[in-house]
Write a sequence for this structure.
C-alpha cells in the first residue's frame, strides 16, 4: 500500500522563513558590534601626526616686564627661546607638526614684582594657564600635562 504524501503546510514555510530572517538579523548585528565602521585609533593618530598645529604662547599681567622662556615640540624636535625683560602683554605664534605639537612657557616677573599669567593654546583650545604674583614670581605652563 502506498503512502500518500501530504503537501507541506504554508504555516511551516512561514515559520522557517521568519527563523532564517531573525538569524540573519542577529548575525548582522553581531558583525557590526564586533567590527564597527569607525577608523582605527592608529589611523587618527597618523592623521594628527601629519598635520600642523598653531601654538600660541601668551604672557599678561600687571608686571611691567617679564623674562620669558618657551619651548616648542615639533616633528620630534624641540627648540627653546628666551626673551629678557619682555614688555607685557607678550605673545608668540608658532606652527608645529606632529603628535607633540605643543610646549612649555614660563614667565618671571622682575624685581618690581606684579602678577604674571602664562597661557598656551593649541589650535584655539586652551591647554594651560597659570599665574604668579610678587617680585621674581614665576608662572609656569606646560601644555603636555
Amino acid at each position: 500500500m502506498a503512502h500518500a504524501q501530504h503537501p507541506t503546510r504554508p504555516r511551516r514555510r512561514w515559520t522557517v522563513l521568519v527563523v532564517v530572517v531573525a538569524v540573519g538579523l542577529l548575525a548582522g548585528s553581531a558583525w557590526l558590534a564586533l567590527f564597527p565602521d569607525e577608523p582605527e585609533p592608529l589611523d587618527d593618530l597618523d592623521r594628527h601626526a601629519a598635520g600642523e598645529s598653531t601654538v600660541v604662547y601668551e604672557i599678561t599681567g600687571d608686571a611691567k616686564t617679564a623674562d620669558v622662556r618657551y619651548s616648542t615640540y615639533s616633528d620630534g624636535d624641540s627648540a627653546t627661546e628666551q626673551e629678557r625683560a619682555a614688555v607685557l602683554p607678550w605673545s608668540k605664534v608658532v606652527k608645529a607638526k606632529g603628535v607633540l605639537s605643543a610646549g612649555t612657557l614660563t614667565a618671571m616677573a622682575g624685581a618690581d614684582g606684579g602678577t604674571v599669567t602664562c597661557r598656551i593654546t593649541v589650535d584655539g583650545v586652551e591647554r594651560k594657564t597659570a599665574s604668579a604674583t610678587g617680585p621674581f614670581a614665576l608662572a609656569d605652563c606646560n601644555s603636555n600635562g
